[in-house]
Design goal:
The chain has 209 residues and is of the alpha/beta class. The chain has 5 helices and 7 strands; from the N terminus they run βαβαββαβαββα. The chain starts with a strand and ends in a 6-residue tail after the last helix.
Length: 209
């Protein structure tokens, strides 16, 4: 089986790349990058003391869940196309044709996909891992807003078919993590569970279409 994944390059994304490579013969990865050291260089993570403290807790939880390694992709059956964050919709489909001949397509943590690429992915019934419980929470940082609203029971992930809209595709299933009193661990555990749930379905050949 060949799989194409469109994702980003934080530790949690690289963990999924390495994990997913164990469940397919070939994994094609289009990966958006702002820096190869996310959370280390100046930028959104260090823009002020509030965001710095917030992301410090995010990365602590990420490290507890995914370990101190897995910063980089290390499997031999992976073809990687790194691109600058924001350039995803500028890709010419002809130039990435080798990445578009897979049996299964997954979108996870990428920029909002538009134009010819999203039309192709919709046609191929790509699935999106949305970190939030649709249709209750859609958009960005949904699990943060669920906690902000006092709804820890609504922290989770949604596996749904990709559309050209925002997180509004038909839902395949929801992922509900076990409860953690630490909100950062609760959020990150939903990330972890969503990754393993996808891989388990691929392993058991449970249809996602």
């Amino acid at each position: 089986m060949k799989i194409t994944l469109i994702t980003s390059n934080q530790k949690k994304h690289n963990h999924f790349v390495n994990l997913l490579s164990n469940y397919c013969d070939k994994l094609y990865v289009i990966q958006e990058n702002d820096t190869i050291f996310p959370g280390v260089l100046d930028g959104i993570y260090n823009s002020n003391n509030i965001t710095k403290n917030y992301f410090r807790n995010v990365f602590k939880a990420q490290e507890k869940i995914f370990g101190k390694k897995n910063y980089f992709i290390n499997s031999k059956n992976i073809s990687l196309l790194p691109i600058k964050f924001g350039d995803l919709n500028k890709l010419n489909l002809k130039n990435i044709s080798n990445f578009l001949k897979s049996d299964f397509y997954i979108v996870y943590g990428s920029n909002y996909i538009k134009g010819p690429l999203v039309k192709f992915l919709v046609k191929r019934k790509a699935v999106n891992i949305h970190l939030g419980l649709s249709p209750f929470y859609m958009g960005t940082d949904c699990n943060f807003w669920a906690l902000y609203d006092g709804n820890p029971h609504m922290v989770g992930a949604t596996i749904h078919y990709l559309t050209d809209g925002l997180d509004n595709g038909d839902i395949v299933y929801h992922v509900m993590p076990k409860f953690y009193s630490n909100p950062f661990m609760l959020k990150m555990s939903s990330v972890n569970l969503s990754q393993y749930s996808i891989c388990e379905r691929i392993k058991k050949k449970i249809c996602l279409r």
